């Protein structure tokens, strides 16, 4: 699969080339490690300075507060993901299944690339300052809304089964997020991302041959019920648009 857009690449950004960027990245690396080890609330700027072997004012020059470091973490993990999945969700030239595949692959690749930081953010959610917590929640809602929209498009086009779109979207997002806990260094990142992306699409796609889950009239009625649900959803959408 050819990926030409930056958002559909693995999510690994090129490293900074200027001195300030290099120093900020080093501070960020040590700070996020300390947050993971000690917890955000128990980590101070002095702890970060000690880990770097510099003075506290030296750290302060780049990051005025530890909250500023945490804000960068939220920006990298959730806010960037929200913008990028919406970019793919807006691709009207792609079928819903392909959009879902690319969005899932992007999310998995990005989480794998920074699994430790992703786990840190999840563990620190209750400790986030209100302003940062609000930004984090908003970004998560944006990610969910993008996935819901694509699932709804797939239901309307009959590519996906007539299910609750929000439930389907949450299931796919959960599939992506869980990789942060079981992925191991050395695993084939591309293969993991491709496999989970295919699993996400397969979990929602209508079967080519619709075999009833039960024999006899009960199975036939179940299939008919699916078609009626699909028809009702299409009619409801038409009424909203009208």
Describe how the helices and strands are arranged:
Elements: H1 19-38, H2 45-52, H3 56-62, H4 66-89, H5 96-113, H6 115-124, H7 130-156, H8 165-182, H9 189-204, H10 216-241
* String of helices and strands: HHHHHHHHHH
Question: What structural category arises from helix and sheet content?
Answer: mainly alpha
User: What's the number of extended β-strand segments?
Assistant: 0
CATH class of the largest domain: Mainly Alpha
Architecture of the largest domain in CATH? Orthogonal Bundle
The CATH homologous superfamily of the largest domain corresponds to Tetracycline Repressor, domain 2
Average pLDDT across residues?
84
Sheet-strand content, in percent, reads under 5%
State the end-to-end CA separation: 38 Å
- Shape annotation: elongated
Unreliable parts: 1-16
Total helices: the number is 10
Description:
The protein has 242 residues and is mainly α. The protein folds into 3 domains: 17-64, Orthogonal Bundle (Arc Repressor Mutant, subunit A); 67-204, Orthogonal Bundle (Tetracycline Repressor, domain 2); 209-235, no CATH class. Helices cover 72% and strands 0% of the residues. It is built from 10 helices and no strands. The protein has helices at 19-38, 45-52, 56-62, 66-89, 96-113, 115-124, 130-156, 165-182, 189-204, 216-241. Helix 2 (45-52) crosses helix 3, helix 4 runs parallel beside helix 7 and helix 5 runs parallel beside helix 8 (165-182). Mean pLDDT is 84; it is low at 1-16.
């Amino acid at each position: 699969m050819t990926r030409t857009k930056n958002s559909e690449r693995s999510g690994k950004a090129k490293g900074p080339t200027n001195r300030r960027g290099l120093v900020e990245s080093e501070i960020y690396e040590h700070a996020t490690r300390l947050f993971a080890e000690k917890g955000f609330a128990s980590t101070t700027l002095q702890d970060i300075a000690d880990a770097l072997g510099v003075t506290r004012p030296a750290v302060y020059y780049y990051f005025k507060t530890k909250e500023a470091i945490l804000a960068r973490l939220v920006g990298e993990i959730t806010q960037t993901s929200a913008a990028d999945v919406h970019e793919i969700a807006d691709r009207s030239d792609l079928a819903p299944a392909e959009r879902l595949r690319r969005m899932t692959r992007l999310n998995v690749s990005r989480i794998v690339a920074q699994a430790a930081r992703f786990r840190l953010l999840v563990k620190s959610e209750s400790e986030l300052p209100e302003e940062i917590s609000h930004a984090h929640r908003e970004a998560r809602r944006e990610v969910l809304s993008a996935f819901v929209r694509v699932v709804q498009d797939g239901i309307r086009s009959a590519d996906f089964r007539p299910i609750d779109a929000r439930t389907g979207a949450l299931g796919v997002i959960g599939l992506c997020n869980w990789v942060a806990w079981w992925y191991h260094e050395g695993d084939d990142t591309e293969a993991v991302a491709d496999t989970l992306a295919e699993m996400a699409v397969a979990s929602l796609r209508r079967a080519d041959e619709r075999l009833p889950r039960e024999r006899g009239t009960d199975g036939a009625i179940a299939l008919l019920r699916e078609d009626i649900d699909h028809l009702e959803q299409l009619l409801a959408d038409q009424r909203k648009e009208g």
